[in-house]
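Sequence dictates fold. Below is an illustrative record:

_____
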Amino acid sequence: MSLESTERPIACDLTQIPAELRARLGADLQRIFGRATALRPLPDGFALEFSNEHGTVATLGEIIEYDRRCCPFIRHTLVHEPWDGPIRLELTGAPDVRELIAAELLPFLPPELVRAAGMHSSPRAGT
């Protein structure tokens, strides 16, 4: 049985993130995703690259810790390439998850990365 084959709904549940952390985590997400250096579409999601700066892995790790509670249907893969190479975050899942990831992810990224990947984004609601 595949991990993707499930009858569970594909919907984020923000109540799984403590209310007192939501604003800070949202700001961290905005800041770190705004520093992404590359966006690569994958068949089942997206890969983001970041330069190897102090604190990037820790910040991404905390974002993943809470995002996996809110959106348990997303697979998070964090790769730190050897010899101070780039840091890559892959967000993947079942085929119908890719569109949800795009809708939530792309507005946080620098527009030039989104265009370079041949995609387009819409502004996030409320921003």
